[in-house]
Amino acid sequence: xxxxxxxxxxxxxxxxxxxxxxxxxxxxxxxxxxxxxxxxxxxxxxxxxxxxxxxxxxxxxxxxxxxxxxxxxxxxxxxxxxxxxxxxxxxxxxxxxxxxxxxxxxxxxxxxxxxxxxxxxxxxxxxxxxxxxxxxxxxxxxxxxxxxxxxxxxxxxxxxxxxx
Length: 164
Known about the structure:
The chain is of the alpha+beta class. Helices cover 51% and strands 22% of the residues.
């Protein structure tokens, strides 16, 4: 089991891996946080190709297996298929195969097949995959900063007794 933790007030992100005697702290990535000036309104004309690409990327990032594979490969480097499944945990072989194939198609991982018996298949993040991981760290930072606010909103909603 792997947990991710962002050290509040810093740019340090760590993973905690379950060891026999508790959790072991390991640095995950050095995060580059940049201030981005966001426009309040979208541009008047959006290129349909760019819009379609953004939707596909969001679908991919929203897939929990992609993010977990991304995290494992960032932490462990080159990983064999079976080991990848064990490190991700709880993923079926079929789903892991589908996930890494899609990630390879998108240029996020490289797949190397060694011509031995039995075949040995290894996966590694590309620079594009690493950059996605860095971009995703912003979500962790946002969640850390706003977690209590979200919990208060949930409690307030539940206290109203409204079901939708």
